[in-house]
């Protein structure tokens, strides 16, 4: 006996129900579901032409990966046919700003003693507040990093 995938089993069960009904017989949804090893509710929904509920990516709670965000940004830039930093180059040329005078300042915080990273992902339209609970009292540390566009770094600061 061949091994069928779940979709194939649903199709076989639907065809069996339709063929018995066309021939004047009556095969119940429950009987077809147990015979073909599929869910009764799935068969009932398919027979009644109820659309399947497909979840969007945020509803499935699978965030975009960095490569996906980069692909989207590159596609948008290609569509607009512009370089991303044309305005920055024009402003630095207009006001005489040197490369070494442009800085990027980043700051991050983390809990002392926590080894694993945890991220809470919730839907934007969710009304309740997302919570991530850690056992015990934790101390926080903050790291500050600064670099200019010429590649020169200010030494990192760690605030405990």
TrEMBL record:
This is Transposase. Pfam families: HTH_psq (PF05225). Residues 8-50 form the HTH psq-type domain. InterPro entries: Homeodomain-like_sf, HTH_Psq. It comes from the Eukaryota. It comes from Colletotrichum plurivorum. One of its GO terms (molecular function) is DNA binding.
């Amino acid at each position: 006996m061949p091994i069928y995938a779940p979709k194939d089993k649903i199709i076989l069960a639907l065809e069996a129900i339709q063929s018995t009904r066309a021939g004047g017989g009556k095969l119940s949804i429950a009987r077809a579901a147990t015979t073909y090893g599929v869910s009764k509710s799935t068969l009932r929904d398919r027979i009644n032409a109820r659309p399947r509920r497909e979840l969007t990516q945020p509803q499935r709670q699978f965030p975009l990966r960095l490569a996906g965000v980069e692909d989207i940004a590159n596609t948008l830039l290609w569509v607009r046919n512009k370089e991303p930093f044309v305005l920055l180059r024009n402003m630095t040329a207009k006001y005489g700003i040197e490369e070494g005078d442009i800085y990027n300042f980043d700051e991050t915080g983390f809990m002392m003693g926590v080894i694993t990273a945890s991220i809470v992902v919730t839907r934007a339209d969710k009304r309740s507040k997302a919570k991530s609970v850690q056992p015990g009292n934790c101390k926080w540390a903050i790291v500050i990093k600064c670099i200019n566009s010429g590649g020169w770094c200010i030494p990192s600061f760690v605030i405990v």
